[in-house]
Design brief:
Number of strands: 0
Radius of gyration: 11 Å
Shape: flat
Helix content: 40-55%
Distance between the termini: 34 Å
Structural class: mainly alpha
Strand content: under 5%
Length: 53
Amino acid sequence: MLTIGNQPRAARALAGLSQAQLAAAAGLNLTTISAMEGKGAATLGSGSMPSRQ
């Protein structure tokens, strides 16, 4: 079973992207991508994701 952190890591690997490439493409900070993969999105604080308007 995949955990929350493993899912983005696996998808990123299938796409052949580095964490930095994914962060740039998604408009996120590299630290956010790393935290999502390392700890899972459920552990991220509310200020970790930029608001989309």
